[in-house]
Amino acid sequence: MRKRILLVTLLVSVLGLVLLTLLFSGMSYSRSAQAASGQLSVLMDMYAADHISAPLSDETAQALSAEMGGTRVTFLLADGTPVGDSEVPAAQLSSHAGREEVQAALRQGEGTAVRRSATLGKELVYYCRYFSQQGVLEGGGAAEGFLVRFSGEASSFFGVFTQALPTLIWLLLLDLLICLFVAWIATSFILQPVERLTQAAATAGNKPVRTEYPELMPIAKMMNEMNAEIGAQMAKMQEDHRMEKLVLNSMEHGIVIFRSEQDVLLINKPAMRLLDYEKNEPIACFTQDGEIASILAAGEPATVNRRLGEREYSLRFTFGDRANVLLITDVTELMAAARSKNDFIANVTHEMNTPLTSIRGFAELIGAGAIPPEKLPSVADTIIRQSDRLSNLIRSIINFSAIDADDLPDYEVDLSEVLRETAVNFEPSLRQKDIAFTLEVEGSVKVLSRRERLVEIVNNLVSNGIRYNKEGGRLQVKLTGGEEPALSVSDTGIGISKENQSRIFDRFYTVDKSHNGAGGGFGLGLATVKKLCRRAGWKLSVESEEGVGTTFTIRFCKKK
């Protein structure tokens, strides 16, 4: 601040001196022009007294100029035509009728002007006077009234300023010294209260800052407000830190942020409990578990599973430049799901082995010639049925697994057309069980999806409605349009109990075990429907009463 005050004081002083110099230079320049004009007026009086009768010619102008110390002399007719000049032959000069001093002389008898001469390239003062008597022209002619113009060099503004420049430089140096001295004393006096206020603010602590100077009271007030705001922010930060700690400790996951085995930066309560951690002690598993110790030594992201207590946890290590993170996640349910998946695979393997064993057994009997010729058609029919069963199982598994990999773009599909084609395809199955089928479609309903996905959904719902229906039962498929199209498939089959309704969409789950594998029913149809609906954002619901029937409803996304 002291430097700024010194600099501003110096700049203001220098600027003032420069402006004063320019002002005095302008005044000197104006006075110089007035003095030159007065001198030319005196010379004009001398001409009027002694040389008025001389011929108006270049020779007369040159002689008169020499007599007057080099003053330029120009003779002009009343219309501004030059007839004599001491510097340039009059014949080479253009008319001067438009010159300021000439027009003034014609109006009021005399005129003065200051300008740069285009002929001589200098700044000149021009003085012109009109004489009404007859003038003698070169060659014996006469002119009724004529003009005489004298001109001389005038000091330019730059010249006047240059003359004043040495004085200006000395004044600037003197001003610099005086300003430095005065500004130093002034700033010390001015800044003393500010320095006291600064010292008071630094040592005030929680107390309010006070000052005896009214001018500094707004600053003291602002400091007190800032201190209060900083205090509030510190309190908020402490509260935020407390809340963050509360959130971390309330998480189910364990979190450890550490630099090394013994340098633990942060650990929440779940991690402390799971790792049996004592403050300021190294984490036991970091040093006692060989695999974890190898991960820490390698410094590469890795995940290991460990049983801690009665549950299984995943320990995910990530490494950074400044700190490392260990995330402990309870994976007991995930591991159980994985085991369940393995069980399902075992079940599927069993389901596949059953038809394969049957096919192989009959094939071996045929190859050995152990089957009478009259029984061969029956055996062939059995082999075909077992092959179809195996094929349906494989196709169901492939279709279900392929849903996640399907990333093709959606397009508008006419669902009403898909339903009509499905009705035609299932006519044989419907006739076989004597099921009364009705299809209700409200016009053409288009849905944003892919045709093969909708075919898969409709086929699974209709085939379930046939497979689990009663002989002579009813099956109704209804499609409504509007802003939110809906598809419902209702049957009068065996129905689903309340306890089973939450599981019917699980993979490989079937309500009636007696139908498992019959006609391709392996518990993947409804799981596939649910997966496709969830992928598309559609709402799938089921209403069922055991022994009465079941209705599946899909509500498609609203039209945009």
UniProtKB/TrEMBL annotation:
Catalysed conversion reaction: ATP + protein L-histidine = ADP + protein N-phospho-L-histidine
Which GO terms of the cellular component aspect does the record hold?
plasma membrane
Gene3D superfamilies on file: 1.10.287.130, Histidine kinase-like ATPase, C-terminal domain
* InterPro entries recorded: BphY/WalK/GraS-like, HATPase_C_sf, HATPase_dom, His_kinase_dom, HisK_dim/P_dom, HisK_dim/P_sf, Sig_transdc_His_kin-like_C
Q: Name one GO biological process term.
A: cellular response to phosphate starvation
Q: Which UniProt keywords apply?
A: Kinase, Membrane, Phosphoprotein, Transferase, Transmembrane, Transmembrane helix, Two-component regulatory system
This chain belongs to the protein called histidine kinase
- What species is given as this protein's source? Candidatus Borkfalkia faecavium
